[in-house]
Amino acid sequence: KTYDMYKYIIQNAHGDTDVLAHISQKYLTLELINLALTKSIYAIAHVPKEYITRAVCENIIKKNSYMLKYVPEVFIDQDMYNNVQYDKNGLGFEYVPEKYKSHELCDIMINTHNSSNYILKHIPEDKKTHENCMTAIKKNINALVCVPEYLRSDEMYDLILDKITYGYNKYLTLEQNYVHMLERNDNLLFVPPKHITYSLCMYALKR
User: Fold this and answer.
1) Torsion, CA 113, CA 119, CA 120, CA 125, rounded to 10
2) Residue 200: its pLDDT value, please?
3) In this model, does residue 12 exceed pLDDT 60?
4) With contact defined as beta carbons under 8 Å apart, do 180 and 165 qualify?
5) HSE of 74 in the Cβ direction (CA atoms, 13 Å)?
6) Distance CA 22, CA 16 (A)
7) What angle (nearest 5°) sits at the alpha carbon of residue 9, between those of residues 7 and 12?
8) What is the distance between the alpha carbons of residues 87 and 138, in angstroms, rounded to a whole number?
9) pLDDT tens figures, 119-175
10) CA 39 to each of CA 5, 20, 55, 149, 156: distance values in angstroms, whole numbers, following the listed order
């Protein structure tokens, strides 16, 4: 097997993310690595650390934020994270070290990305506020799981009740409204602890 043969294989890989895994280490060069990355940035998973440069890292995270997981610690700094281009779901945010997750960045991520439950899960506890938690729940009620108990409010639970039942029914009691909610979503997590009753628990269990 020759260098030219490996080069030919990569040139014709057409998005094969594992192509580098099949190349003998003695033939691996920056030229072949860069060629493989032009075919698929996911090939980075098979690039030995000694071949990963800062330029390579900056290039792949501009194309896909999830590639942050492959950035070696030696290149981790604020400038690196300023270059990240997050996709609509903000994937890769989990790989940003907490010290680079400012209040401003956390609020931006919650406000501008769809997967608010994923984003909120990876926001440091001390950066979570009632406001950004409410924003997350407005986008996805399942984000409540990631809200610290001390930040959970009646406003959040009321919002969830409205979203699941399409509006509070004033002709029903509060417990009847929660029964109506459990008919659509049998997760007691969405019922405020102070309003959880034996009958609601039994109803949820039977479902």
Assistant:
1) -130
2) 93
3) yes
4) yes
5) 7
6) 11
7) 110
8) 20
9) 999 999 999 999 999 999 999 999 999 999 999 999 999 999 999 998 888 899 999
10) 17, 11, 17, 46, 46
Q: Provide the residue type at 85 as one letter.
A: Q
Residue for token digits 């997590």? 189
In the 3-class helix/strand/coil scheme, how is the chain assigned residue by residue? Answer: CCHHHHHHHHHCCCCCCCHHHHCCHHHCCHHHHHHHHHHCHHHHHHCCHHHCCHHHHHHHHHHCHHHHHHCCHHHCCHHHHHCCCCCCCCCCHHHCCHHHCCHHHHHHHHHHCCCHHHHHHCCCHHHCCHHHHHHHHHHCHHHHHHCCHHHCCHHHHHHHHHHHHCCCCCCCCHHHHHHHHHHHCCCHHHCCHHHCCHHHHHHHHHC
Mean predicted lDDT score pLDDT of the chain: 90
Q: Is the distance from CB of 153 to CB of 130 less than 8 angstroms? A: yes
Q: For residues 62 and 87, give the distance between their C-alpha atoms in angstroms, rounded to a whole number.
A: 10
Residue 156 to residue 160: CA distance in whole angstroms: 6
Residue 119: which of 148, 155, 139, 90 has the closest Cα?
90
Quick one: CA dihedral 29, 35, 37, 43, positive or negative? negative
- Which two tokens mark 181? 């909610």
